[in-house]
Specification:
about 260 residues; alpha/beta; seven-stranded mixed beta sheet; 5 helices; about 20% helix; globular
C-alpha cells in the first residue's frame, strides 16, 4: 500500500497498479488516474494545475508516462506541461494548441480560483493562473488501443460535453474512466455553447451498454457501481421521450445523477 502525505493532492490506491490522484481542496473535486503497465504508464488527465502533479507521479512510478486527455478543459490539463508524451482526441487538438475560442483567461481564472479550501502551494497566485496550451505528441481517434505492456486501453470517442471528449476502458481490469461524460453528485454539464446535448446523450447511451466492473468519473465520488448504467439507459430514453434534449431546458434529475442542458 502506497502512502503519500501531501498538502494538495490526495492519492488513493484503487488496486496495486492503479491510483486516483485527487484535488479535494477545490470545489470541482477533480480526479486524475495513473495506470501502471509493464512497459509504461498512462496518466488520464493532469488536474487543475494549481500544483504540479508530476511531483506525485514521480513518487508512484519511474515508468515512462503517456498522458491521455479526456478533454481540453482547464481542470483536466493543468500539469500537461510537465510531461513529454501528450495524447488528445483530434477534434480538440486546436483547443490544446490555441485555447478554447470565446473563453478568456479571466473567465477561466474566475472559475478555477474560487472556493478553494485546500492548502495551495507556496507561490500560487490566482491572478496569474494560466491554462496550459501546447502541441500534443499524438492524436486519438475512436477505437484506438494503447498498450502499456500487459495492460490494454481502448479509447471511446464520447462527444457532447466537448467535441473531442473521450472515455478510456481498461480492458484487463474492466475499469471505465468516464471523464466529464458521467459522474455523480453534481449535474453533468451540457449547457455551454461548446457542448452538444444530443451528442452527450448518444455518448451516455453508448457507454451504458458496456460491461464493466467499476466506473471512475473525473469529479466528486471516487468509484461508481456499474449497476447505475441501467439507470443511464432509462434516463436516455426518458429525456428523448420528453423532447428536452437541447440547450436551455435546465437540470433533469434522476435517482443517482442529473444532467443540465
Amino acid at each position: 500500500m502506497v502512502t503519500i502525505h501531501d498538502p494538495w493532492f490526495t492519492v488513493e490506491e484503487i488496486d496495486s497498479t492503479t491510483y486516483a490522484i485527487s484535488e479535494y481542496g477545490h470545489w470541482e473535486k477533480v480526479h486524475s488516474f495513473l495506470l501502471l503497465g509493464k512497459e509504461k504508464a498512462a496518466l488520464i488527465d493532469t488536474g487543475l494545475g494549481i500544483d504540479n502533479m508530476k511531483r506525485i507521479t514521480d513518487q508512484l512510478t519511474d515508468l515512462p508516462i503517456v498522458v491521455i486527455t479526456t478533454h481540453v478543459h482547464a481542470d483536466h490539463i493543468g500539469s500537461h506541461g510537465e510531461y513529454e508524451t501528450i495524447l488528445v482526441h483530434e477534434a480538440e487538438e486546436d483547443w490544446l494548441v490555441n485555447g478554447i475560442k470565446g473563453l478568456t483567461v479571466d473567465q477561466i481564472r474566475k472559475e478555477m480560483c474560487r472556493d478553494i479550501t485546500g492548502q495551495t502551494p507556496e507561490g500560487f497566485d490566482p491572478e496569474k493562473y494560466t491554462p496550459y496550451t501546447g502541441k500534443p505528441t499524438g492524436l486519438l481517434s475512436d477505437g484506438d488501443l494503447i498498450d502499456l505492456g500487459d495492460r490494454l486501453l481502448t479509447i471511446f470517442h464520447t462527444p457532447g460535453h466537448s467535441p473531442g471528449h473521450i472515455c478510456v476502458l481498461d480492458n484487463n481490469r474492466e475499469y471505465l474512466f468516464t471523464g466529464d461524460l458521467f459522474y455523480l453528485d453534481t449535474p453533468i454539464y451540457a449547457f455551454y455553447p461548446t457542448t452538444d446535448p444530443v451528442e452527450l446523450l448518444n455518448s451516455l447511451e453508448r457507454i451504458s451498454y458496456l460491461q464493466v466492473a467499476r466506473i471512475f468519473g473525473a469529479h466528486n465520488t471516487l468509484g461508481i457501481d456499474p449497476s447505475v448504467l441501467f439507470e443511464v439507459q432509462e434516463a436516455v430514453y426518458e429525456l428523448r421521450r420528453r423532447d428536452v434534449v437541447r440547450h436551455g431546458t435546465g437540470i433533469h434529475t434522476f435517482k443517482s445523477f442529473s444532467v443540465r442542458f
